[in-house]
Specification:
about 150 residues, alpha/beta, 4-stranded mixed β-sheet, about 15% helix, about 30% strand
């Protein structure tokens, strides 16, 4: 039996979320991702939401044929418990890190995040690294924001 590693592709990262309405709003309305696919299991009491960015190379592709997706996993009932929280891997011990999203204009994107009430972990003007920002999603997962000059119009 053999396998061809040249055909392997990175498909998705999974985050556990408390409140799907808040998380879907954050990733679609604030970060501009599209809901690519979803699966709901009432029997097992969970829902899966797959999000990603649209580009010509991904048009019409099924979820397993796409690359770089974010899977949000919701265990039903957690949204009703205000004290419930998942460990994001970024607490005192650290460990996990973040995902990163590129934008056309870092300054404008940060101003928009401010207007939308997004929580900042690091603003571009903080610290030595002036070319990046970090924001937090509703569960506290970190999202690095980077300006990609090739996206400027």
């Amino acid at each position: 039996m053999t396998t061809d590693v040249s055909k392997y592709r990175y498909n998705h990262t999974m985050y556990r979320i408390r409140d799907p309405k808040a998380s879907l709003r954050f990733y679609t309305e604030i970060l501009g991702m599209k809901l690519v696919d979803e699966h709901h299991s009432d029997e097992a009491k969970f829902s899966l939401y797959f999000l990603g960015y649209e580009d010509p190379a991904s048009n019409g592709l099924v979820r397993l044929a796409r690359q770089g997706l974010l899977e949000l996993t919701h265990n039903h009932g957690t949204e009703n418990d205000a004290s419930f929280a998942y460990a994001t891997g970024n607490g005192e011990q650290g460990g996990y890190g973040h995902i990163a999203v590129t934008v056309d204009d870092l300054t404008a994107a940060c101003a928009r995040f401010d207007e939308l009430g997004v929580k900042f972990i690091k603003r571009p003007e903080d610290g030595r690294m002036k070319h990046i920002a970090f924001i937090a999603d509703p569960d506290g997962y970190r999202v690095e924001i980077l300006e990609n000059p090739a996206l400027k119009s």
